[in-house]
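Worked example

This section walks through a single chain of length 174. The input is the sequence exactly as stored; nothing has been trimmed or padded.
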Amino acid sequence: NILRYIYDMGRGQGKTKKSGSPVALRRRPSRPTPRPGECRPVLMSLSPVWSEKILDGSKTIELRRTRSGCEKNSPIIIYTSFPRKRIDGKCRVERVLNLPLSELWEKTKHGCGCTEEEFYEYFKGKESGYGIVLEDVERIDPVELPFDGPQSFRYLFDDEDDQKAVLDLIGFSS
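Given that input, the structure is written out below as tokens.
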């Protein structure tokens, strides 16, 4: 991992908001996007409301506006976002649905954990969406990440020490 100091005054990148002093940014090596059918562990960020619904079994389908890196049998690590900022569970992908919204609603309405109004509001501006059907959901003792959590999702790789430690701890290492 390479630490770089960024001094781009024009755009303010790499500066703290308060002091304006440079901060170290960690640059990750570029990784190829998994090919269709390739299962990589996915760290998926969920708000506390949705995370809890998945972990208590009342939500079995995660809705996404984009593919979110999941394939059948992909391991998913459930990262609960602010204010918790921790891993609370794990599961696997049973299948991924990519359908026009009316069909997606009909197939997911009993497992998506939201109302029809919330569903269409979430997908506003989209013609189709994704439903990630989850299986083998398991709540685990909370785990703090040794790195920043993702905005939506991120792949985890066992050749990076901090990510390997997380995969080992929750039982998803290769």
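What to look for: The two ends are 22 Å apart (CA to CA).
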